[in-house]
Amino acid sequence: MARAIKNVLLVGGTGNVGSHILAALLRTGLTVTVLTRGSRLFPSGVVVKKVDYENSKSLFEAMQGQDAVVDASFSVENDVSLKLIEAAATSGVYRFITSDFGLDPDLPGVHDLPVFERKKKSYEAVKKKARDTGLTYSLIVCGPFLDLNLSAGFAGIELKGRTATLFNDGKNVIPWTTLEDIGTATAGTLLHPEETSNRPVYIHSVFMSQLQLLDAAKDALGPDGWEISAQAMTPLFQKSMKEVQSGRITPMTFGVQIQYAIATRELARPWDRDDNTLVGLQEWTTEQVRRLIKRLASQ
């Protein structure tokens, strides 16, 4: 029988993902504590604990009495997530949601990409703790963030500039999930601890290709004035791997690896399992995507 989850500790409650998780947790009526290194204002009803992530005792004390820990820190420091997992296991936390929020970690090759090294280490660590202690875990597997990627142009489509760079042929269909849906699904995972124990939780707002997103953008913003090109991703990926091997790493080194992954069916494709209904999500319609695009383009 799964343990009821009432008290939740959120790490990284101010980021793009964490802020939406915080809002969703508060809607459920769970008791929420936010772990922070700085001085930030949070909504009323949120308990705030300031800690030193380098201090194991500080983390251990902060996790006392918590049923679940959600890591939305996205720290570039590999050891932060590992320290959080260790502290959760030693302090009696029941459920740990890792800072993954991306592609399927159980799909061969995904966690072998250098860009996902931190996620791989966290996944391996939390699985080991689940075998050796009373800690259980979940991962939220959501694909790229739909609204954030469209807004930033990282999906290859610049809404305001009306340009599109297709990764390969732009036809690879993958899961995309909005930040709000990720928040809802994270809270829903904690409300269903038995069904989501020790496994990835597979969610999506839509299954769409770049070309389908581009068609939605043309419908939403008008078909005229678009400049469209295609980019072969394998040469860029090979270049990024050489940069990793030589130590000459730039932000685009890892950005290219993510774009290569979402263009490659072996690494990104619609999930075989669908947990949307379980965690309280409904798949979006194409019309909803068009409305999102209109809103993002007007901002």
From TrEMBL:
A GO molecular-function descriptor: oxidoreductase activity
Record domain NmrA-like: where: 6-220
Keywords: NADP, Oxidoreductase
Domain of life: Eukaryota
Family matches, as InterPro entries: NAD(P)-bd_dom_sf, NmrA-like, NmrA/Isoflavone_reductase-like, PCBER-like
Name of the protein in its database record: Isoflavone reductase family protein CipA
